[in-house]
């Protein structure tokens, strides 16, 4: 039940953002408010099993992601260290397009994250940074296989491939 | 304000252009994916930012709506783009395409 409500509320907030400035009840028209409520209840009923996975042995409840402190950390991470790393990597990669100097390879890193959401966040961050692309994940140990455009070391540590992303993922998701 | 918008568009188009150029420059699907997905994401962040700045600077309900919708589109882009790139890379590897000129391939040692 709390999972269903949380999913519906998130869907409703998103709907309200999309329909800003449509009418006179606050910023919205009455029709939008009502149809948005109905639609987000339907969306919550369909999607709550996906957005909040069932608790498994040894894992904390995924409701902890609703903690506003984690959301603030996430936004800080997105604007600060992540964007800077992405800009730097883009310039490096742009240089490689022009010169054509590459040393590709697939390496294995073990970030040591304990939750599925953490490893998803880290894998998405790695993929969004140019020069590294997460190809596969080892489900048991949560190790990532990363295609790296400029292999400096065949058995690198996590920090060499993705900087301090793993620490941030741990702070946000665990 | 117009100058800021032109600068944002310029940066975005430069990265998008480099991304398309890299498609014909690199040897295999993995290296191409790097540019095809990520340089274009980075470029699209800037072009979308230009639209957002334009919407807020122009003012009025319709243009504010444009800016807010662009923000939502940007968030959706940032979530779906790496997921799609990962899905393509994983499917490629599972269907037996090995990276060319690779100096190391840990995934092959595993299977």
Biggest sheet character of chain B: none
Q: What order do the SSEs of chain B take from the amino end to the carboxyl end, as H and E? A: HHHH
The tally of strands of chain A reads 3
Mean pLDDT across residues of chain B:
84
State the shape of chain B: elongated
Shape of chain A: elongated
Largest interface here, residues on each chain? Answer: A-B, 37 and 44 residues
Structure description:
The complex is a heterodimer of chains A (174) and B (111). By secondary structure, chain A is mostly helical. Helix content of chain A is 56%, strand content 10%. Chain A has 2 domains: 2-64, no CATH class; 67-173, no CATH class. Chain A contains 6 helices and 3 strands. Chain B has one domain (2-99). Chain B is 84% helix and 0% strand. Chain B is built from 4 helices and no strands. In chain B, helix 1 (2-25) packs antiparallel against helix 2 (29-58). The longest helix of chain B has 34 residues, at 61-94. The mean pLDDT of chain B is 84. Classes of the chains: A mainly alpha (174), B mainly alpha (111). The A-B interface holds A 14, 17-18, 20-21, 86-87, 90, 93-94, 97, 100, 102-108, 123-125, 127-131, 133-136, 138, 145, 147, 149, 151, 154 and B 15, 18, 21-22, 25-26, 30-31, 33-35, 37-39, 41-42, 61-62, 64-65, 68-69, 72, 78-79, 81-83, 85-86, 89-90, 93, 99-108, 110.
Features:
heterodimer; A: 174 residues; mainly alpha; 10% strand; elongated; B: 111 residues; 0% strand
Helix/strand layout:
The complex is a heterodimer of chains A (174) and B (111).
Chain A lengths: L1 H17 L11 H22 L16 H32 L5 E5 L6 H13 L3 E7 L4 E6 L9 H5 L2 H9 L1
Antiparallel strand pairs in A: 1-3, 2-3
Chain B lengths: L1 H24 L3 H30 L2 H34 L11 H5 L1
Give a concise summary.
The complex is a heterodimer of chains A (174) and B (111). Chain A is mainly α.
């Amino acid at each position: 039940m709390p999972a269903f409500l949380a999913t519906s509320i998130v869907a409703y907030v998103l709907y309200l953002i999309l329909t800003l400035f449509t009418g006179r009840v606050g910023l919205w028209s009455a029709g939008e408010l009502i149809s948005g409520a109905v639609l987000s209840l339907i969306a919550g009923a369909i999607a709550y099993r996906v957005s909040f996975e069932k608790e498994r042995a040894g894992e904390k409840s995924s409701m902890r992601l609703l903690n506003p402190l984690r959301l603030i950390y996430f936004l800080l991470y997105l604007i600060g260290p992540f964007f800077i790393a992405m800009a730097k990597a883009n310039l490096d990669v742009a240089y490689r397009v022009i010169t054509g100097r590459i040393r590709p390879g697939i390496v294995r890193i073990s970030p040591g994250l304990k939750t599925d959401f953490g490893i998803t966040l880290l894998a998405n961050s790695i993929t969004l940074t140019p020069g590294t692309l997460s190809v596969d994940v080892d489900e048991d140990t949560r190790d990532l296989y990363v295609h790296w455009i400029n292999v400096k070391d065949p058995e690198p540590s996590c920090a060499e491939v993705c900087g301090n992303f793993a620490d941030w993922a741990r702070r946000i998701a665990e | 304000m117009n100058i800021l918008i032109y600068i944002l568009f310029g940066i975005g188009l430069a990265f998008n252009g480099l991304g398309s150029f890299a498609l014909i420059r690199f040897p295999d699907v993995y290296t191409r994916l790097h540019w095809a997905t990520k340089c274009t994401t980075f470029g699209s962040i800037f072009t979308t930012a230009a639209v957002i700045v334009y919407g807020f600077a122009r003012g009025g309900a319709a243009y504010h709506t444009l800016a807010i919708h662009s923000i939502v589109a940007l968030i959706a882009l940032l979530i779906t783009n790496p997921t799609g790139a990962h899905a393509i890379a994983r499917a490629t590897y599972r269907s037996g395409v090995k990276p060319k000129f690779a100096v190391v391939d840990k995934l092959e040692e595993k299977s």
